[in-house]
Amino acid sequence: MFEKVDADYLIVGAGASGMAFADTLLSESSATIILVDKEHKPGGHWNHAYPFVTLHQPSAFYGVSSKELSRGVIDKVGLNQGLNELASGAQINAYYCDLMHEAFLPSGRVFYFPRCEHLGDGVIRSLVTGETIQLGYQKLVDATYYKTSIPATHTPAFHVDQGVNFIPPNKLPFLAAPIKGVTIIGGGKTAIDSCLWLLEHGVPANNIMWVMPRDGWFIDRKNTQPSADFFFDSIGAQAAQMEAIAESTSLADMFLRLEKAGVFLRLDSEVLPKMFHGATVSKKELQLIQQVKNVIRQGRVLSLHHDKMRFEETEVNIPEGQTIVDCTASAISNLEITSVFKDNTITLQTVRAYQPVFSASFIAHIELTYPNIDKKNNLCRVVVLPNHDYDWIELTYQNMMNQFFWSKEPGLKTWLQNNRLDGFMKMVASVKFYEFKKLAVLNRMRKAAKPAIGKLKMYKAELGS
Ligand SMILES: Cc1cc2nc3c(=O)[nH]c(=O)nc-3n(C[C@H](O)[C@H](O)[C@H](O)COP(=O)(O)OP(=O)(O)OC[C@H]3O[C@@H](n4cnc5c(N)ncnc54)[C@H](O)[C@@H]3O)c2cc1C
User: Fold this and answer.
1) 2-45, pLDDT tens digit by residue?
2) Would you say the CATH fold of 159-215+266-328 matches that of 6-149+332-393?
3) Which residue lies with its CA nearest to atom 20 of ligand 1?
4) How confident is the model over 106-135, as pLDDT tens digits?
5) Phi and psi at residue 144, to the nearest 5°
6) What is the pLDDT of residues 203-226, one digit of tens each?
7) How do the domains of the chain map onto residue ranges?
């Protein structure tokens, strides 16, 4: 039986975003919070992740600000060797459960309704008993806006004949028969992870067929390391990125310069990527997936049959006994932007590129710090989630502009430096006056920033955005 509850904030969605928002509210205010989620445990889509999933970014700046996720380990073996550890799906799930049971609930300020669906306006229904209840709240926080879609729970956008051996990656480690041949469908991080898993488990690259609807640019994980030892990689890559943009002579030239500068990687040097989803890989991972040579580049699959796949312009035969792995879920299925603050609703979106959890924490801080809704929205301009390669222009422009606006706000700099979800501010702030090589990198960045913004504006105009 439900008991009626009133709270300051009703957060719909106890995934990574809702949890990061709630955590900052708890740390920085005395607000009371209701968390509602259809899942029976916090963590959102991570509850259904494939068993071999890991973060693609270091654990050190994922999760919530108040609780460390990283164990401070540099991987000694494997494809991430030499880089900061990546939490597995199991570790992420345990982290959110511990957070809920050891911090959120004991605070006495969080009321958690797992396995309940929010029907709108504070009405929730238990997915266990069917009971409904009206909850009381001052502000509604929508932490479901991006509608994350993953293979285990989505419906493919193409027809699949009954009986085709078509599985989500979740089933790969549990297949009984020896795996003869595998077809991977999809060009994103899930497809990369599935290829890596197969190759690492001894499936010959020749036995893998990879259906690549679009090639994507990848980010080199070495450039996303938040610990001091990696200053010249992480901050150096940011400087190189600004210089590449500033010195570019056209849009096409800019992407090639970014690749030359080590900012972007790609699967095949002969194929120009048309997609950018922010997938992050290590060089070792890239080298391994490059062993797969049977890559089908015919656009999207239109239908899947026992012996063939249909594409818009052609058909491709599927050898007998193939296992076909569905890596076509698009992760973020809602790319439309809306105001973060509107009346009494807060819609969580990214205000820093590729960083949903940092963004949720930042938005909570702005909610608590500034009374004026226009000011709040000005500080929380949404950074687009990228899909096409050229979306990277808008994303980078907005990201740089947000950073600029935030730097003008007294107090924000210190907040950013103290937030564990901000990977790099601390690293930059800790540079000493005698560390000339590091200062030189920061100087390169400062010098290139203005011309880079100018070029991005120019390319935006060319693209009509
Ligand atoms: C394989 C994979 C790897 C990733 N790696 C990274 C990474 O390294 N770094 C990174 O920053 N991001 C990564 N991401 C992106 C990732 O999606 C985000 O980091 C984050 O987990 C998204 O969380 P969310 O809370 O926004 O969404 P979700 O996890 O989708 O949570 C939303 C929750 O809302 C609930 N919900 C929806 N509607 C209702 C309703 N009406 N009533 C009640 N509850 C509702 C859902 O049940 C769900 O639990 C990765 C994504 C995938 C798929």
Assistant:
1) 788 999 999 999 999 999 999 999 999 999 999 999 999 999 99
2) yes
3) 16
4) 999 999 999 999 999 999 999 999 999 999
5) -125, 5
6) 999 999 999 999 999 999 999 999
7) 6-149+332-393, 159-215+266-328
Of all protein residues, whose CA lies closest to atom 44 belonging to ligand 1? Answer: 37
Best of 45, 149, 221, 326 for a ligand 1 pocket test (most atoms within 8 Å of beta carbon): 45
Query: Is the model's pLDDT at 330 over the cut of 80?
Result: no
- Looking at domain 159-215+266-328, its CATH superfamily turns out to be FAD/NAD(P)-binding domain (3.50.50.60)
> What's the confidence (pLDDT) of residue 315?
96
Query: What radius of gyration do the chain's Cα atoms show?
Result: 23
CA of 259 to the centre of ligand 1 (A): 30
Homologous superfamily (CATH) for 6-149+332-393: FAD/NAD(P)-binding domain (3.50.50.60)
pLDDT at 38: 97
Q: What is the DSSP string of 271-327?
A: S---EEEEEEE-HHHHHHHTT---EE-SSS--EE-SSEEE-SS-EEE--TTEEEEE-
| Pocket perturbation via mutation, ligand 1, pick of 10, 11, 36, 38 by most ligand atoms within 8 A of CB | 38
Report the residue among 17, 118, 148, 154 best suited for mutation to probe ligand 1: largest number of ligand atoms under 8 A from its CB: 148
- Nearest-angstrom CA–CA distance, 453 and 28: 34
CA-to-CA separations, 401 to 315, 383, 456, in angstroms, rounded: 46, 10, 11
- The residue assigned the tokens 């880089």 is 83
Residue nearest to atom 34 of ligand 1 (CA): 13
* 461 has a pLDDT exceeding 80: yes
Cβ neighbours of 216 (radius 10 Å): 26
Report pLDDT for 150.
80
DSSP element (H, E) containing 426: helix 425-429
**Ligand 1 cavity residues, CB under 6 Å:** 12-13, 15-18, 36-39, 44-45, 49, 53, 55-57, 62, 117-118, 143-144, 146, 148, 150, 189-190, 331, 354-357
Please tell me the distance between residue 318's alpha carbon and the centre of ligand 1 in angstroms.
Answer: 33
**Average pLDDT of the residues in 376-404:** 95
- What pTM was computed for the model? 0.96
